[in-house]
Amino acid sequence: MGGFPTKESPVPLVRISHRTGVNEAYRQALSDGVQEAMATSVNVPAADRFHILTEHASGLIFDAHYLGIERSPEWVAIQITFRKGRTVEMKQALYRRIVENLAKDPGLRPEDVMICLVENDLADWSFGNGEAQYVR
Asked: What's the predicted TM-score (pTM) here?
């Protein structure tokens, strides 16, 4: 899969921030769970993966009780940047699928998963060579 990007096959950039001290299997499960959810919920090609996972010994500062949701030190922040145009229903399905996947593996509580979507346009992407491949 992969290949030349089109409007029909957007390639998101995913940033996942988590606490320090987790093993590689945990990190892989985070990435896999998000990727599968994007493929099944918002039409992202399964093989098109650009994920940045960052661990933090400190620097994850969050309100453990915001909106009445009780968060633990296992809290994870997921930011997905992709082309705008998905429906509210697709986004809600994405949120549900991510927390379902991450509850199964690596065993995160749904309360400990925060997801933020950042939408932009086709001209806002360069995948290399100093070119805007989406607007060729």
From this structure: 0.89
By the 10 Å C-beta count (0-12 exposed, 13-18 middle, 19+ buried), 88 is classed as exposed
124 φ/ψ angles, rounded to the nearest 5 degrees: -90, 10
Could you tell me if 16 and 77 are in contact, meaning their C-beta atoms sit under 8 angstroms apart? yes
Distance, CA of 133 to CA of 124 (rounded, Å): 10
Other Cβ atoms less than 10 A from the Cβ of 54: the count is: 12
Structure tokens given for 104: 């199964």
Q: Is residue 7 part of a domain?
A: no
Of 93, 98, 105, nearest to 27 by C-alpha is 105
Residue range 43-68, pLDDT digits in tens: 898 888 999 999 998 878 999 999 99
CATH number at residue 83: 3.30.429.10
Q: How do residues 109-125 score in pLDDT, each as one tens digit?
A: 999 999 999 999 989 98
**Sequence-distant (≥ 6) Cβ neighbours of residue 101 within 8 angstroms:** 32, 33, 34, 36, 37
* Catalytic residue positions, numbered: 12
